[in-house]
């Protein structure tokens, strides 16, 4: 039974690592942005706002004038397929920004965006996918060539794809499908995905009324990135079931243990042990067993997790979700044990005197 | 004569038969008085009510009618909690198969009852082990002990709380002849030395000479005492 609890604790660690990893993979590019909220096209579908929304960049100025808004900047988001000049295929989430806005990324290696139209700064994970500073990425859809000038310090991914920051104008051309030498209509340079807003206590509803947009906080916008809601709700469901199963398993175990100890308990009762004493005694035993097994499972899970984190699997260990999972396992285990232990109150001390009464 | 430790007056116990609706008379108007330092044996066929006698005397079950008094306290009308307290502080049980806790070392078997609550007075587990000749096995667990050793340990465990009344259920059931003699002799010795009132239920007629009185029990009735 200790091993069952240990295995459940291990599974909890792995699941928590997987869900953190998936969240990172899905929205770390958004999490690392300084923006506090995004204003999308009015009435856009909430679950796919990043790919569907198109607004005029006039909205940026309207938002910048709103109370509480420190900064507002145009933001473009589009997914593309690319290939480097060394023949590496790479999918990218292109974030179009103005290099002098608050959205501009810092580069850990190479340089940041300087304003030249063909520059791109990529997520650190692009390095793991075989892209290096100095490579030239050709956008599959338009043939646009982008020079990789820098890599960021952290993972910046969006919808399981590496993020690349590039100048807004270049982004607008790529999104509109403009090839080199094409005539570009003016409206292309007016279209952006959203206004990125930075500010405390911004009245989003008022801003939306003024600018004719639909805004979400950055956290809410996670749900608008591809697959995010489906993935996280699936994992949450698995975790909830795991908690329920662990409570039942622990409860069932202590039921069996109590039945096995019936003779022993009846003897202690005959000798004058109170029900309270026996309940406390059993609960302390359960707690020790749970804690020891959970710690063993946690250790194994962390070891395995550390091994998994080096693979391509989206996996990241974070202290707080693991602490919450362990806490839930212990709490539900104790509830299971408590339910089982109530049987102790019904053990008859007469049993101690044997059969021949 | 000092006041008796255990008094049963017209104690009657009826309980349902598992197979039918009939009630079975386990105890039929039993009268019994046992003084401090006295050891009384109860013999009789299986099902005669010997264990019921122990259960009623030990407050494990309330008689259907009649009175039970232990050390001057009448058990009738005591709450379950008070009864538990009384068993803890005044009554010692020795069971048929010793019923030790499998996981505990010998010396911890003796410490266990002392954790059940506060005691104004109790024996020292180590010197008690010495007294029953088990000091050299203090670190052993029950499965590492012989039947006789287990029964000595069971006796020591009952004595550690310094009870007034000792209730002993078939102490020699699992023992050979020589070990039975030794264990019952020890029981008689402790009864005298500590001034305890002891009731021993047994099938074993060879150990009766250690007792002060012997009662036979038939169909729930306790017969007049015979000398051993």
Structure description:
- Chain A has helices spanning 2-31, 49-52, 58-64, 124-128, 168-176, 204-211, 218-221, 228-260, 262-270, 275-309, 319-341; strands at residues 37-41, 55-56, 71-84, 89-97, 109-110, 119-122, 136-139, 145-151, 157-158, 161-167, 191-192, 194-198, 213-217.
- Chain A is an alpha+beta fold and 357 residues long.
- Chain A folds into two domains: 2-23 and 228-352, no CATH class; 34-217, no CATH class.
- In chain A, strands 3-4-10-6-8-7 form a six-stranded mixed β-barrel.
- Chain B has a single domain (6-222), classed as Rossmann fold, CATH 3.40.50.
- Chain B is 28% helix and 25% strand.
- Chain B has helices spanning 50-57, 80-90, 106-111, 125-131, 147-159, 177-194; strands at residues 6-16, 23-34, 39-43, 65-70, 73-74, 91-94, 165-169, 197-201, 213-218, 221-222.
- Chain B is globular and about 50 Å long.
- Chain B is built from six helices and ten strands; from the N terminus they run βββαββαβαααβαβββ.
- The interface between A and B is medium-sized, with 19 and 38 residues.
